[in-house]
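One thing: mind reviewing this one?
=====
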Amino acid sequence: MKLTEHIELSDRTLFSFEILPPLKGGSIDSLYRTIDALMELKPSFVDVTYHREETIMRKREDGTYDRISVRKRPGTVAICAAIMNRYQVEAVPHLICGGFSKDETENALIDLHFLGIENVLALRGDNERGERNFRPEPNGNKHSLDLIEQIVDMNSGKYLDEELRNPNPTNFCIGAAAYPEKHIDAPNMQSDVNFLKRKVEAGASYATTQMFFDNSVYFDYVDRCRENGISIPIIPGLKPLTRKSQLYSLPKIFNIDIPEDLCREMEKTKTDEAAEQVGKEWCIQQCRELIEKKAPVLHFYTMGLANATREIATAVF
């Protein structure tokens, strides 16, 4: 079922979460343990992140270096198939521009279509490690907008090989990313909203936000989107703080703010256990307000850890 249909058919706020594929060489059993802990809460869908290859410099015996490509978290397509088979729940794979040509993207979409996966989240993806600016692959999509357009073309039966006879159209519900505190590359908030509108006009049917810790920025963002003619569901993304160090790491990584009240309470803590408790209590209050205001879904970024998400979701659903 398409994600938007789940939202339309529900008279309540839904629950969903995101997982990361295990590191290369890791077991899927660790992933199953995370999902098992959250399935009792009846998620409507589970997002699975996609990761580009990374490059490392490996030193030779003669002192020169080889540039080596490594894939740290492979398996997104296979994991989605495994989740749907094991849990009978919708799996939403992320698709990214970085590290993939249009041909590779098309082949991934064909695999997903054959597996009966109906939902995808289209993202630009992160810069390659060490690079200041995003660099697409040769013959790759430069922006998430380009990626959305490629998926829409396939939904219309238009493949890269224009000589294909009677190609089978796909039927993907396409999600996009949204940034209540604006994307780091956007010059201002209105520019960011304008770009989301372009993604919607291209074919995005819903949006999931970057994590935030102040609900007012989400409500203001949704209001601004509605004022600009964006009517798709905008799903809030949530991440409870679980360590004191995240006060400083998360803003740097995700270009977000930590509210002063939350920062003050976290600074008082002496242990990670105490910090996690503060983070969970804050997130519970966020969730209750979002449910009261009729948010379509509460979407949790688990970062591979289920306990905090399970405790919060149990308290509010």
Remarks:
- The radius of gyration is 20 Å.
- Residues 272-292 form the longest helix (21 residues).
